Amino acid sequence: MQDIDFLEQQAVDAAISLHWKEAITLNKKIAEIDPQNLATYLRLGFAYLQQNDIQSAKKYYNKALKIQPKSSVALENIERIKVLQEKGGGKNKLGVSSISPAQFIEITGKTKTINLVNPGQKNALAKLIVGQKVILCIKRRKLEIRSQSNEYIGTLPDDISRRLISFIKAKSEYATYIKEANLKNVVIFIKEEFKGKSVSNNVSFPINFQKALEINNQDASQNTDEEEENENEDWEKLIEGHHEEEKETFVGVQSENLDDDEE
User: Fold this and answer.
1) Pick from 88, 113, 129: which residue ends a domain?
2) Does some domain include residue 95?
3) β-bridge mates for residue 111, sequence order
4) How far is CA 147 from the centre of its chain?
5) What is the DSSP-derived secondary structure letter of residue 243?
């Protein structure tokens, strides 16, 4: 069993590094040694999904169900595959990964892993894969996450949305990727790529978002009329934005119905 333990660690490491072909090869070796290894079939199903091979993924999730008929992971992914096949006529409709493992490295103040709220429709979530690049889209006072084909995926929590909108209006740029996804939950990874001049002294992702917002609002309320014209000192102005900015599209960010309070 020591050989299996070693192979399992290698298989897990390969998956963490997004080396799916290697992960598949290693897990198949484990399955040959131990045909009743549930975790191996679950890993194979997931790896094949990331490789856009829906039929093979379905095959291994079904093998997992033969071992454990109530496996929640296998059942959830079989449902995901069913959604993909219903919407795509059985064709592969998964997204495309464009991230290297190194890009998931956490950097204090510059990156953040975020659970989305109000997730989108199942047929949109079913297509998501780890490492897929997605788009930040400003809509009213919130930041939505959309696919490259403009399908709604979910929304950032209010506190994070509010802060990032102010940074984006100040010409900051962010890269956003899928880190985890299923039919009920989506986790994204956001990385600061460029910080606008007017917010160059501020951190994109402070440890305490609420405290940072309170400080920003206090500073804004104390500004004189002249100071309120300076976006570096007036956060409320950054958040509200100018009417002439409503149709502006930032690099890597789509702006939709900016600051429109009506449907």
Assistant:
1) 88
2) no
3) 191
4) 10
5) G
